[in-house]
Design goal:
The chain has a 9-stranded mixed β-sheet, sandwiched between helices. It has one domain: Rossmann fold, CATH 3.40.50. It has 7 helices and 11 strands. The chain is α/β, with parallel strands linked by helices. The structure holds flavin-adenine dinucleotide. Flavin-adenine dinucleotide binds next to α1, β4, α3, β6 and α4. Flavin-adenine dinucleotide (FAD) is lined by residues 6-8, 25, 28, 35, 37-38, 41, 61-62, 64, 91-95, 98, 102, 116-117, 119-120, 122-129, 220, 222-224.
Length: 259
């Protein structure tokens, strides 16, 4: 079974972040890393491909500057190859533009299953994968906490507020996985060395058959009009326990609907 895993390469969340003052979008210069959220999709893809007894995992990513650092991490985990779409024309792409580009790249890989994370760590709209499914003409199942494949179908335990739904749909399909669906493996030294020579096909927008004028800021239907700093955290309320302090704690948790 051929599994495509969408892998977003993001600025290191542990490093200081900056916004472009003109577009209010994240500055994405320099080294990008594998989004932690996508390590779960990579692991899930590897396990499903191994269980199916054939096929492999292809990574697909759209990132600026020909960036491959995050892809190499996922290749070191065991993915076989990668497709990277990188093009100056993509600057300013919103979620739908991203989906259009990734759909074209994914079609080339002829997948039986496409995996993505439920939401990315930096943009976290959670919209890209379902747009992707629509463009690919595939069914989509979101919030998967367990995934298995048999007899041409994918079976998913889909996380809900109350528990989970059991969903079965025909392949090929797009499935988004939650953190915790599997425990991502650490790349071994052998894996890291092997990843250096695994193929990464780098494509431009034109090479995908898309019009560069229809992607990037020109093709975006979303615009970030302003960004405001979050309110400073307010000082907490100190409750002096006169023997009834527990009741105040219970009231407080009740107000927050935590109990
Ligand atoms: C007006 C505007 C301008 C923007 N300009 C830029 C820009 O210049 N450069 C830029 O990099 N971003 C830019 N962005 C952000 C970019 O559009 C989003 O990162 C992208 O749309 C995906 O949205 P998300 O991160 O919310 O994805 P989500 O829907 O939260 O992502 C879910 C999952 O989809 C997959 N996925 C998402 N994005 C990618 C990707 N690129 N490659 C592979 N898999 C992916 C991952 O598995 C991810 O976990 C811009 C956004 C807006 C609104």
């Amino acid at each position: 079974m051929n599994v495509v895993v969408c892998v977003k390469q993001i600025p290191d969340p542990a490093a200081p972040q900056a916004l472009d003052p003109a577009t209010h979008t994240l500055v994405r210069e320099g080294k990008l890393i594998l989004d932690d959220s996508d390590a779960y999709g990579v692991e899930m893809g590897l396990q499903l491909a191994e269980q199916s007894g054939g096929g492999d995992v292809t990574l697909v990513s759209m990132a600026p500057g020909g960036e491959t650092s995050g892809l190499r991490t996922a290749l070191a985990m065991g993915a076989a190859k990668a497709i990277l779409v990188s093009d100056a024309a993509l600057k300013g792409s919103d979620a739908l533009c991203t989906a259009k580009v990734l759909a074209k790249a994914i079609e080339r890989a002829e997948p039986d299953l496409v995996l993505a994370a439920t939401e990315s760590t930096d943009g976290y709209t959670g919209t890209m994968p379902v747009q992707l499914a629509e463009l690919l003409g595939m069914p989509s199942v979101t919030f998967a906490k367990k995934v298995s494949v048999a007899s041409g179908n994918v079976s998913v335990e889909r996380q809900t507020e109350a528990g989970y739904d059991e969903v079965v749909c025909p392949l090929p399909a797009v499935v988004t996985v939650t953190a915790g669906v599997v425990e991502p493996r650490y790349p071994s030294f052998k894996g890291i060395m092997a990843a250096k020579s695994k193929p990464i096909e780098q494509l431009t927008v034109s090479e995908l058959g898309l019009d560069p004028a229809g992607v990037g800021a020109n093709g975006a239907s979303q615009e970030v009009v302003s960004v405001v700093a979050a309110d400073d955290r307010k000082a907490g309320e100190i409750v002096v326990d006169d023997g009834e302090g527990y009741a105040r704690v219970v009231d407080f948790l009740d107000q927050l609907k935590l109990i």
